[in-house]
Amino acid sequence: MMNTRELFIFLPCENKKRMRKCLVLIFFLFNCMIVSAQDPAFSQFYACPLYLNPALAGNVECGRASCNYRRQWPQFGAFDTYSVTYDQSLPQIKSGFGVQMLAFLPGEVIRNYYVNVFYAYQLRLAEDIYLRAGVSGGMKIDDVAVENILLPDGTTGTSEGMVDSIAISPDFSGGLYLSFFDKFYGGLSVAHFSNTVDDLAIKYTVHGGAEFPLDNNGYYAISPNFLYQHQGNFNQVNVGVYALLRWITLGVWYKGNLRGGGADTHVICPLVGLEWRNFSLGYSYDVNISGVGLQSQGAHEISLAWNFCIYVEKQKRVLKAIKSPRF
Fold first, then answer.
1. Does residue 322 fall inside a structural domain?
2. How many CB atoms lie within 10 A of CB 278?
3. Helix/strand/coil for 214
4. How far apart are CA 289 and CA 268, in angstroms?
């Protein structure tokens, strides 16, 4: 993430004739940086588990590959988020690892990329009580594509002598996740706690829930959940419930973005998930019911995951995957 001083390195403001254009560019880039100073967010929180909490890395019986796509506010040019993740259980050492690549594209000028590796360790505290602790490390890449800046007179940032700027900063996060009686679960995570380079604030997440079976076979269940996130002046309170109907998951979340000063927004997010053999597919849609969201056309989100195993059956050892929603 660039700071204001770095902006002037490539802004051509050496004379009064160009000063007006420079002011327009500075105002435009400043607003873009405000957007990129906050992490992108998914509505299917648990469908992107490592991004939610590093402690969930490898919380599968074997291996998992997943991808996520979110398109937000298409009426205003769209904010796109892409994620590709692979994580693996390591039962011999009661651990799991993973790697994730995530791209956040809030328009065509500012582009944010995150590349991280994850490690988590699982500890059995007592009968049916498990604790996972995880960390992640990597880098955040901020890219400014000035050729996509279009000024009021029809010129672009490139024609005004600006050059692309790329800033790379280290990124570290950590988290804990607890499950007990194979019914209740919860966790907390702290993201970007090492960040001293750019304007991206530390993000705190607290999440939890329970799963109450409705039959003896575990095919049907009700699962209430909550999630709270705080980052800078951004506070989001989420409460929701899943209905597990064998291979179908139906859910609905309320998402309240509490900014104060009349800028609060409220979202209702219905979702549906399908599970078939080792695959799971989810779709959700954010219905904005207040603020700018009424004209934004909400947000579409799709997730796809594949659970697989790389071990030979005779050599296979299993580390218990503790309770966690899929979407």
1. no
2. 12
3. coil
4. 7
For residue 256, tell me if it sits in a domain: yes
Count of structural domains within the chain:
1
Strand pairing category for 220-231 and 184-191: unpaired
Domain hosting residue 29, numbered range? 4-315
pLDDT in tens, 136-193: 999 998 887 666 666 655 565 555 556 667 888 899 999 999 999 889 999 999 999 8
Q: Tell me how far the alpha carbon of residue 327 is from its chain's centroid.
A: 13
pTM, to two decimals? 0.83
Number of H helices, E strands in the chain: 3, 15
Separation CA 298–CA 291 (nearest Å): 11
Q: Which residue has the tokens 């790697």?
A: 99
Instruction: Please check whether residue 327 lies inside any domain of the structure.
Output: no
Q: What is the per-residue DSSP string for 13-24?
A: -SSHHHHHHHHH
- Whether 9 has a pLDDT exceeding 50, the answer reads no
- Give the type of residue at 205: T
Of 321 and 184, which is predicted with more confidence? 184
Q: Which of 138-147, 245-254, 299-308, 309-318 has the lowest mean pLDDT?
A: 309-318
Radius of gyration, alpha carbons of the chain: 22
What CATH number does residue 16 fall under? 2.40.160.40
Residue 325 inside a domain? The answer is no
Measured CA to CA, the distance from residue 278 to residue 290 in angstroms comes to: 38
CA atoms within 13 A on the CB side of 3: 6
C-alpha span between 77 and 226 (Å, rounded): 30
Angle at 265 between CA 264 and CA 270, to 5 degrees: 150
d(CA 122, CA 131): 6
In 3D space, the residue among 206, 58, 202 whose CA is nearest the CA of residue 134 turns out to be 58
- Contacts of residue 307, defined as CB under 8 A and 6 or more positions apart, other chains included, come to 60, 61, 62, 63, 64, 278, 279, 280
Is 46 exposed, middle or buried, given 0-12, 13-18 or 19+ CB atoms closer than 10 A? buried
Are the CB atoms for 231 and 39 separated by under 8 Å?
yes
